C-alpha cells in the first residue's frame, strides 16, 4: 500500500518516472532498470553496508530506505570526499585530518538522529 502511494506521488513530480523492476534479485533489477533512485522498505536505516556493492557498481544511485512504520526515511549514497592540504606540513595535514574526522562525526550524528 505504501509503495503504491509513493509510486503515485512520485510519478506526478516533474522529471520522475516510476518503474517496476523485473522479478528476481535486487542487484539484477538495478542492473536491468538502471534507476537513479531505489526506494526500499527497511526495518532500520542502519543497513547502508548492505547497499555498498550496488552503490559501487552504480555510483549515481541513491537508495532510499523507508522505515516499516513509514515515519522516517534515509538516503544512502556513495560519496567521495576530497580535502586538499595547500601547504604540506605536519600541522596542515593534521588539521585537515581532524576537520575530516569532525565532519564525518557530525554526519554520523545527523544520520543517527533520523
Could you explain how this protein is built, in words?
- The chain is of the alpha+beta class and about 110 residues long.
- It has two domains: about 1-80, no CATH class; about 80-114.
- It is about 40% helix and about 15% strand.
- It contains four helices and three strands; from the N terminus they run ααβαββα.
- The protein has helices at about 1-10, 25-35, 50-55, 90-110, and strands at about 35-40, 60-65, 75.
- A three-stranded mixed beta sheet has the order 1-2-3, with no helix packed on it.
- Helix 3 (about 50-55) links the parallel strand 1 (about 35-40) and strand 2 (about 60-65).
- The protein is elongated, with a radius of gyration of 18 Å.
- It starts with a helix and ends with a helix.
Quick summary of this structure?
With 114 residues, this protein is an alpha+beta fold. It is 41% helix and 14% strand.
Ordered list of secondary-structure elements with their pairings:
Elements: H1 2-11, H2 26-33, E1 37-42, H3 52-57, E2 62-67, E3 73-76, H4 90-112
Parallel strand pairs: 1-2
Antiparallel strand pairs: 2-3
Work out the count of structural domains. Answer: 2
Proportion of beta-strand residues: 5-15%
**Biggest sheet, open or closed, and with what strands and sense?**
3 strands, mixed
Report the radius of gyration as a whole number of Å.
Answer: 18 Å
Distance between the termini: 23 Å
Individual helix count = 4
The number of strands is 3
* Low-pLDDT residue spans: none
Mean pLDDT: 79
Strand order in the sheet with the most strands: 1-2-3
Alpha-beta classification: alpha+beta
* Helicity range: 40-55%
The shape is: elongated
Give the ordered list of helices and strands: HHEHEEH
Amino acid at each position: 500500500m505504501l509503495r503504491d502511494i509513493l509510486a503515485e506521488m512520485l510519478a506526478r513530480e516533474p522529471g520522475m518516472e516510476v518503474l517496476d523492476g523485473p522479478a528476481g534479485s535486487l542487484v539484477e533489477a538495478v542492473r536491468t532498470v538502471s534507476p537513479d533512485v531505489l526506494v526500499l522498505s527497511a526495518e532500520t536505516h542502519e543497513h547502508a553496508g548492505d547497499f555498498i556493492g550496488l552503490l559501487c557498481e552504480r555510483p549515481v544511485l541513491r537508495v532510499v530506505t523507508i522505515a516499516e512504520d513509514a515515519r522516517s526515511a534515509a538516503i544512502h549514497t556513495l560519496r567521495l570526499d576530497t580535502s586538499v592540504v595547500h601547504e604540506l606540513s605536519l600541522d596542515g595535514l593534521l588539521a585537515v585530518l581532524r576537520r575530516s574526522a569532525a565532519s564525518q562525526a557530525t554526519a554520523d550524528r545527523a544520520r543517527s538522529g533520523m
